[in-house]
């Protein structure tokens, strides 16, 4: 499961689609709708929020908005809390840098033309996150 902290505009088609699918799985886990993935480390930051379902709803809505802007059809009715207020989930600069390098490696293999769209450093975070200085997140498994 990869729930990208990077801004959805940075994600290539494959990462955006996978993020949507995995975000929907995360939504099911956080709402108690499945028994799998319940201890997945990427969910720690959503669980730490006062309203985890609203936090994942905001995350999914940001992916859906980017998909719509690109002409894709992500079914917004699948988001249980599409109009949730923006949470303030912190993401460290170290985590964003790690994710950017991870995405760059993936994109180099599957969509090399997308590389020119990616920054070399200091990537933007998704709308669900607030950037703070710091190292790689404790929940990340490099």
Summarize the helices and strands and which ones pair or pack:
Elements: H1 13-30, H2 44-47, H3 52-69, E1 89-92, H4 93-110, E2 129-132
Parallel strand pairs: 1-2
Helix pairs in contact: 1-3
Taken together, the total number of domains comes to 1
| Unreliable runs | none
Distance between the termini: 13 Å
Strand content: 5-15%
Structure, explained:
The protein is mainly α. The chain has one domain (8-132). Helix content is 41%, strand content 6%. The protein is built from four helices and two strands; from the N terminus they run H-H-H-E-H-E. It has helices at 13-30, 44-47, 52-69, 93-110; strands at residues 89-92, 129-132. The protein has a two-stranded parallel ribbon. The chain is globular. The chain starts with 12 loop residues before the first helix and ends in a 10-residue tail after the last strand.
